[in-house]
Specification:
Blueprint (H helix, E strand, L loop, with lengths): L1 H10 L18 H6 L2 H11 L6 H7 L3 H4 L12 H22 L5 H12 L1 H10 L14 H5 L2 H19 L1 H11 L6 H8 L2 H11 L6 E8 L6 E8 L2 E8 L2 H18 L6
Helix pairs in contact: 4-10, 6-7, 6-10, 6-11, 8-10, 10-11, 13-14
């Protein structure tokens, strides 16, 4: 994978010095001095793990959109929204690769679900808080500084923007190292996978606690050739169809059906017959 990315990045993604956008600000430019305190510069160098970083990129990564909308802000200043877009893609790729390699038995739906639990806004905001990122955000004078620094949305955006900045400045390997150190090393993957595979057990516990008949799983449809067949399985309780799931393995389809059933039970007030 690393060799593949080295080939791709050698021609598809120009490094920082070739990018002719607002990142092309000299380190001694007054915008740097005004935007990044010495404390924040030291923080960034320690966080990235090197001293020779391209400060203008990180200035953008830390710039909340309220700065851009502030009347006193120079027009050249750019918020971190574009870097957030890039960082989101880099994060999805690297987390997907990690899950793909660590859980070779997991189906596509399971991998997607597990990834969503790691890279959702709540989780990303928690990762941002763990590294004290909110303290270093650049916020417009007219904005509610306290509210933004503790905002789940602002913190998640800044965390993704930081990943985008590291990728542009240092490359895919450094971005991967950052994600490994600040996300993967702090996630209990066994708990995530156990929760993902526990929907059938949760459904049984629900029916028992509510004195209902146990759930019944049935194959509703089989499709495809023998070597690539998919199964659609439904789960019902007291003759009420609660959920359906489709997968290449029956047990995976049952888990998806149970998951849909639990979601429906949680969201709806079902009248049991």
């Amino acid at each position: 994978m690393e060799q593949f990315w080295q080939k791709i990045t050698s021609f598809a993604f120009p490094r920082t010095e070739e990018i002719s956008i607002s990142y092309k600000i000299e380190d001694n430019h007054p915008l740097i001095a005004a935007g990044l305190s010495e404390k924040t510069i030291t923080y960034l160098k320690r966080l990235v793990g090197v001293t020779g970083i391209n400060l203008p990129i990180y200035l953008t990564a830390l710039t909340h959109r309220s700065v851009v909308h502030d009347p006193a802000t120079p027009a050249i200043i750019e918020s971190n929204q574009r870097l957030e877009f890039l960082g989101d893609s880099v994060l999805d790729l690297l987390i997907s690769e990690y899950l793909f390699k660590r859980f070779p038995e997991n189906a596509e739906g399971e991998l997607s679900s597990n990834r969503a639990k790691i890279v959702n806004r709540k989780s990303l905001a928690a990762f941002a808080r763990s590294i004290g990122l909110g303290e270093h955000l650049l916020i417009g004078d007219s904005a509610d500084e306290h509210k933004i620094r503790s905002s789940e949305s602002a913190l998640a955006d800044a965390f993704e923007s930081l990943i985008g900045a590291i990728y542009l400045d240092r490359g895919i390997q450094d971005a991967s190292d950052f994600i490994s150190h600040h996300i993967i090393d702090h996630v209990d993957f066994n708990t995530i996978v156990a929760a993902e595979h526990n929907y059938k057990s949760r459904l049984i516990e629900y029916t028992q606690s509510h004195h209902l008949a146990p759930p019944v799983y049935s194959v509703m449809e089989e499709a495809g050739a023998e070597h690539e067949k998919t199964f659609t399985i439904g789960v019902a309780c007291t003759d009420i169809l609660l959920g359906q799931g489709t997968a290449q393995r029956k047990k995976d389809a049952e888990q998806l059906a149970a998951k849909e059933a639990m979601e429906r039970i949680t969201e709806e007030d079902i009248e049991w017959s």
